[in-house]
Amino acid sequence: MDRVPVFETGSRGFESCRAGQASINISMNTNVKDPRFYSATPDRCYRVLKLPIDVKHMIDVNSYRVDLIGNRETVFENKKDWDPMFDEWLGTIGLEVELARLFTNPPGLKYTRHVDRRNYNDQTVVINFPFNDTGTVYSWYNLHEHGQVTEKLNMNNNLVYYFNPYVCIEILKKEILHEVNQPLLINTGYIHSVDVGQTERHCFSYFIKRKNSTESLQWDYAVKIFEPYMV
Prior knowledge:
Elements: E1 5-9, E2 15-19, E3 27-30, E4 46-48, H1 66-69, E5 72-76, H2 84-92, E6 95-105, E7 113-115, E8 125-131, E9 137-143, E10 149-153, E11 159-163, E12 168-175, E13 184-187, E14 191-195, E15 201-210, H3 219-226
């Protein structure tokens, strides 16, 4: 099936793109008290990985330049869109790709502080493969005791949490300095943001889950599984 993009301009300052699915935009303020909003610690935010395989990305990054498609998150759900060897290797450690995303961002873009998934206590883990990402800064936060949360339905029909920067307490800041294709294990279940560096950013991001399951990968389990591959 050919991908027919449907676009949404999101709170994070860029457009999202998903194949063949209309977008729904609903925003509301909420007083929800999710433990993830208050429990971030520096040792549970990210890890640098050195995988035993050379992951090849099946999408031509040159076709997704900012001057061609603008600021965008493109979602891919078809296995042909990512390296079958990557999925095969993940299978040997009991995991698989849930979906892949390609971020295409202009220099200097700043993401709103957010949590990627709404699921209660679901500390979603992704593996990011940055390209042209030098100088980009990842930051993680805890929510101030009286801070308010905004919910918004995203392109995956999941409610995403967004946060005003004035109610967030910074826990950790990580600047990307490593070479192209060195992956990062990222905890997106905590409040986090991304400030793009001085070059156009391309980053492949893979949601990882347990094989043959709907259960998203939890951070503690991810650290245990990927420990032999951590730098």
